[in-house]
Structure to design on (273 residues):
């Protein structure tokens, strides 16, 4: 087993079994490749005065546990706002792509003028729910048996549920922490910690029985309020379904001090074949 989710190999990154999703032994969970694409976006170019504020991912097909190539390009340049594209391919076939918005950082307004988070955002006080109880108060992940493979994304992340559970339908609040670096000998950035967790929002807040239904998210958009502090990030997630077999999963992402991001996933819902 590799000691990281991905191992550099020249211009490529070789996915290790730590990236494996729970339903296909040859396919990755979307969290690790999302973090890898986010890494490429935040490291693009030489600017040190920009911060990633939004990343949208299109999951074009299953991402294999295999060598992957990354290509990045500047889609829109600008002094204050720029858009960077990143693409992930296997043997020349694109499997996932991302578009990241980076905004120039400046000195903001004083605290008294900036205001707090809007109602429902998840801030402290009467305008929103408090920051969830910390991971030390949570319960470990309980998961369905998934055939004979035991190593993968589920085991490579540490999970602590403080509300709801994977095996209980409905909203859930769960803390996640990476047990391994994204790439060897490199401390994961705050952005990478958010992105590797954010794709789990629909899974932890599913409202149907996993054994009878599938909920496939072809995309993921993450808006970042600020970089998280520390190793743990928390997803406060809920899923809403429509009769037509469509749905959306929404996640508020916290660190121990408050909200840091919001994630959205569209869902295709159908009975398991």
């Amino acid at each position: 087993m590799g000691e990281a989710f991905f191992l550099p190999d020249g211009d490529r990154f070789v996915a290790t079994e730590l990236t494996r999703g729970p339903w296909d032994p040859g396919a990755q969970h979307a969290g690790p490749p999302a973090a890898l694409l986010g890494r490429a976006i935040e490291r693009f170019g030489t600017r040190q005065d920009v911060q990633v504020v939004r990343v949208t991912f299109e999951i074009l097909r299953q991402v294999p546990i295999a060598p992957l190539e990354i290509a990045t390009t500047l889609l829109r340049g600008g002094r204050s706002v720029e858009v960077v594209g990143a693409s992930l391919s296997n043997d020349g076939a694109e499997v996932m792509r991302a578009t990241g918005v980076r905004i120039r950082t400046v000195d903001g307004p004083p605290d008294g003028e900036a205001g707090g988070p809007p109602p429902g955002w998840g801030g402290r006080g009467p305008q929103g729910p408090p920051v969830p109880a910390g991971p030390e108060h949570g319960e470990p992940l309980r998961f369905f048996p998934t055939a004979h493979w035991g190593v993968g994304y589920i085991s490579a992340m540490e999970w602590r549920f403080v509300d709801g559970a994977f095996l209980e339908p409905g909203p859930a609040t769960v803390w996640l922490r990476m047990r391994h670096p994204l790439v060897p000998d490199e401390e994961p950035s705050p952005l990478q910690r958010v992105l590797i967790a954010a794709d789990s929002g629909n899974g932890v807040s599913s409202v149907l029985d996993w054994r009878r239904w599938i909920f496939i998210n072809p995309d993921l958009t993450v808006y970042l309020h600020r970089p998280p502090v520390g190793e743990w990030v928390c997803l406060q997630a809920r899923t809403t379904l429509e009769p037509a077999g469509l749905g959306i999963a929404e996640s508020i992402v916290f660190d121990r001090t408050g909200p840091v991001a919001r994630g959205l996933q569209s869902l295709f819902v159908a009975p398991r074949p």
The helical segments are 31-42, 111-114, 153-156, 190-198, 201-204. The chain has one domain: 6-105+134-271. The CA atoms of residues 156 and 179 lie 6 Å apart.
